[in-house]
Amino acid sequence: NLSSRLGQLVKTMRGHSRLTEDNIKDALREVRMALLEADVALPVVKDFVANVKEKAMGQEVLGSLTPGQAFIGVVNDSLTDLMGKQNDALNLAAVPPAIILMAGLQGAGKTTTIGKLARLLKTEQKKKVLVVSADVYRPAAIEQLRLLAEQVEVEFYNSNSWEDPVQIALDAKEYAKKHFFDVLMVDTAGRLAIDEVLMEG
Question: Which of 21, 36, 46, 200 has its CA 20 to 30 A from that of 137?
Answer without folding.
Answer: 36
